[in-house]
């Protein structure tokens, strides 16, 4: 009887363990955040390393993602409260730029660092920055310290208010 339960339990453990591993970003706390260069919505180019000196929240999201859209009010509130002390870089993984622009406006995402990564597949969320950070699900975030070192991955945004 015990052996009959062992195989299904082993399968479930492997499935959920593998799923948790796959969907976790590959950025690691206490390591230097991978640098990237991107073009903001206003056409200006920047690099993550240009933002050193202030903490940065890399916010990976999509206009098509319900949980991402529900998280927008928290990000807006965070930006309004600590805008000068924390730079939010929102990286939208999108297939449709018009939907991205509409969602940014509807959700009041008006901070400067808005980037759209064109993807061919929302299933795999491919894009240069998402790939660099191992992003396989959204919403995801990476908190980078003023020195460019990763402080945390998928941090609770409400804790950043403290």
Automatic annotation (TrEMBL):
PROSITE patterns membership: THIOREDOXIN_1, THIOREDOXIN_2
Listed CDD domains: TlpA_like_family
Pfam families: AhpC-TSA (PF00578)
SUPFAM superfamilies named in the record: Thioredoxin-like
GO molecular function terms attached to this record: isomerase activity
UniProt keyword annotation of Isomerase present: yes
Record's keyword terms, sorted: Isomerase, Redox-active center
Start and end residues of each Thioredoxin domain: 27-162
Transmembrane parts of this sequence: none
Coiled coil (residue ranges): none
InterPro entries with a match to the protein in the record: AhpC/TSA (IPR000866), Thioredoxin-like_sf (IPR036249), Thioredoxin_CS (IPR017937), Thioredoxin_domain (IPR013766), Thioredoxin_ResA/DsbE_sf (IPR050553)
Superkingdom of origin organism: Bacteria
Protein name, as recorded: Thiol-disulfide isomerase/thioredoxin
């Amino acid at each position: 009887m015990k052996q009959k339960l062992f195989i299904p339990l082993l399968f479930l453990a492997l499935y959920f363990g593998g799923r948790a591993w796959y969907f976790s970003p590959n950025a690691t706390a206490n390591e230097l955040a991978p640098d990237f260069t991107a073009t903001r919505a206003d056409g200006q180019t920047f690099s993550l390393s240009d933002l050193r000196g202030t903490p940065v929240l890399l916010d990976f999201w999509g206009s098509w993602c319900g949980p991402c859209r529900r998280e927008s009010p928290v990000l807006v509130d965070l930006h309004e409260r600590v805008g000068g002390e924390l730079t939010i870089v929102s990286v939208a993984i999108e297939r449709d730029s018009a939907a991205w622009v509409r969602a940014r406006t509807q959700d009041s995402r008006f901070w400067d660092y808005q980037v759209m990564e064109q993807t061919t597949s929302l299933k795999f969320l491919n894009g240069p920055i998402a790939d660099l950070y191992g992003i396989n699900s959204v919403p995801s975030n990476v908190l980078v310290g003023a020195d460019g070192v990763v402080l945390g991955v998928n941090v609770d945004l409400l804790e950043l208010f403290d």
